Amino acid sequence: MSDALSTGAAIEEVSAEAREALLVEAAKQDPNAYGELYERYYARVYRYIYHRLGSVHDAEDLTAVVFMKALEALPTYRTGRNGFAPWVFRITRNAVVDHYRRQRKQAPLDELSHESADSDPVGDVLEREQQIELRTLVECLSPEQRDVVLMRYAADLSFSEIAATLSKNEAAVRMLLHRGLRKMKAVMDDETSLRRN
Amino acid sequence: MRPRCDETDLESIERFAATMGLRVPMDPSHKQRLRQLLVQRHMELTASGGKDKSRRFLRFSRIKRYAVIGPAALLSAAACMTLIWSLQVAGHRSVPTAQDLTQALAKTVPTVTAWQVTVHQEQSNSAQNVLCPGPLHPGGLYVRNNIVYLWVANRWYQVPANAPNDPRCPPYWQWVYAVLPQQLAHHQVQLSGGQAIGGKRTEQIRYSAQAGPGKIVKTSVWIDQRTGLLLKLQRVTLQGATVVNRVTALYRYQQAKQ
User: Fold this and answer.
1) What average pLDDT does this structure show over B189-201?
2) Which site from A105, A152, B5, B252 is most exposed, i.e. has the minimal number of CB atoms within 10 Å?
3) Which residues of A touch B12 (CB under 8 A)?
């Protein structure tokens, strides 16, 4: 069979959605396919969790929990219209909620510290300040607005994927995002004027 | 009162959120370590064959267990009764549609980890045997929208269109077990109880097709009643009343435990 492999030409015409659906099916039985699926979603899941929790260590731990849960629940996954992303982000969202339930409090902002790979102390401080600023703005939002903003900008989900994750329609998601951004803008303006005064 | 933000005002905050949303401290070694752990865990789960799940199931109370399995068990019993009844109505066998077979094979085909085809061909007073081995990567075949795909070394192949083939074995004989529903969809089929093959009860499906002027190809397939997998295929080419070619293929499978 291995000799014969060279005679076959892999299919390229299958759409990205179909390829992902097939990859998920493969991942149910093949560890390497699950590894590939993990590579596709690791950064998106991690970023969403990091912005929700504000701590690198918590984000790493919870990302591990999410992918372990996804692995164990994978045999129950059925390919839906919106693909794998809504399914994995429902697990992610529930994991964050469980985390808060266990912690009973949110991580303080001063945990937003990390070792930066590049050696630019000024850049690091600026970056950290901007992250704290984003987190402060996101904290002012309602839970639903926060989810939509972070799923859109941190997890890079499409509106239809967010809608499927949150069991809402796309129009409602767009409205939540718009209102969330308005609120963030208002808070930012308030802070700017306070600093000026 | 705060003035309303217009769209232009929101663009700056949107840009800020989009930029900062993607910029997070990330340790690549964590990603690598976690991947190894997940692959390891996947292997454990596969090896345990879902034993973990059964343990989890036992955590339910007895009433809850009955509530969960009760409706499913009743439904399965009703489905089995219907199936047995439909097979027992003498002279009025229900013909499995291509869709029925697809559904059965969609469940069974992905469990095949290896198969072997022995093809015996009789033509012009000569006979030859070809052994076509077909080892698969575990879980290598997938059925989606009635199309069978093969996943090898991170690449997809459509079966049999561009699937890799053993050069010693014609693609048709090598892959027909996986694409049988697609084959049957184009023919009027007749169903009858088949002979036992390797101790397995079978259903026989027959169909024929015109293959040129005065030439007709009659095909019989025997499928395992339990799994829906193809066990034997016989194709006879007739020119008028003369048999010009007869091919018999026998299939054996190795299946992963589910």
Assistant:
1) 80
2) A105
3) 185
